[in-house]
Amino acid sequence: MNHAKRNYIAIILIFFFCFFFLFFWKLPLYPPDEPKYTFSAVKMLETGDYITPNFNCKERLEKPILTYWLIAGSYKILGVSDWVSKIPFILISFVLLLTIYIFSLKELGYSTAITASLIFCTNLHIFAYSKAIIPENPLLFFNTLSIFLFYYGLRDEKKLLIILGYLSCGLGFLTKGPLALIIPVGINFPYFFIKKGFLNTLKNLLNPLGIIIFLSVSLVWYGPVIYIHGYKFIDEFFILHNVKRFTGSASMHIYPFYYYIPIIFATYYLWLPAFPNFFKYIVSPNKTRFEGFVVWWCIFVLILFSLSKNKLHHYIIIIYPALSILIASSFSNLKERKAFSDYVLIL
Q: How far apart are CA 124 and CA 24, in angstroms?
């Protein structure tokens, strides 16, 4: 490893330490969700029941199991405390940061990869939720990884990458449910359908071994929980908390179609001076194939979550890896990079 590469890795570690790790042990558990997840994990250790989460003697079937397992595993290794419960989510945030850096580096070079990593870390949502005990944290990692793996697998027709993409989808399915598959497939399939044709894309994407791995990973928990709770679980999780919340049949957090637009601007508050240049870059034809794919990633996620009748502000974090890469890419010439360097110094 040459000196320059070591320097860039050191910079990523500094980003992680400053924005994700520093003082996380001083943070309390924020209600309403974090105490529910941690208490349920403690009950799992006490009862030995790792299938049905319980909080205040009530079954919690509205969310999948991986968040609880991560906390329980951390407790089992390091003991029960508030800061221990956050460790898995901070480590996942670090691996996510590395993922963004590595794939940006592969396509856009060291400078853009570092810039994208910095922009991602300083997004206000990411800064806050990198230390939060929520399923959206690991889902963001599994979604991002599977999107990239499917992209390279379909682009280069490499079966192993598609199989690994399905593995990541399976772990995401254990974290949050159908979105773990809908988002990476929904982004990649239409894109490559246009680029390579319907049949070629369908043939490569429907990898039998990949699908078997996805089902095997998912059924580790979905099998037993459906066996134990039957239609009660299907109705509460799949129908109520997925289908009805999306369509608005279950009114919990109803907001207008444009709800996420101001949220995106607010979370990139530190980078608003870069947005005029970013918008010019988005509509310009001077983008690589990879950058065009990342633009479609942003469009698909924004449309999908805007169409959902029930919205919560942090659902849109799925867009941030792609948007951070695009903002970094918009600093394309020397003049813009000089302006970027001056702006970072001001920050």
A: 15
- Nearest 5°: phi and psi at 58? -120, 140
Tell me which H or E stretch contains 55: strand 54-55
Report d(CA 241, CA 258) in Å as an integer: 22
pTM: 0.93
SS (H, E, C) 192-244: HHHHHCHHHHHHHHCCHHHHHHHHHHHHHHHHHHHHHHCHHHHHHHHHHHHHH
5 burial class (0-12, 13-18, 19+ CB within 10 angstroms)?
A: exposed
Among the listed residues 159, 139, 140, the one whose alpha carbon sits nearest the alpha carbon of residue 149? 159
Q: Which two tokens stand for residue 77?
A: 């290794």
Q: What does the alpha-carbon distance between residue 213 and residue 1 come to, in Å, rounded to a whole number?
A: 35
DSSP string, 111-138: HHHHHHHHHHHHSHHHHHHTT---THHH
Q: What is the C-alpha separation between 236 and 228, in angstroms, rounded? A: 14
Residue type, 36: K
In tens, the pLDDT along 46-66 reads 999 999 999 988 999 999 999
State the Rg of the chain over Cα: 20
Q: Which of 330, 268, 323 is nearest to 296 (CA)?
A: 323
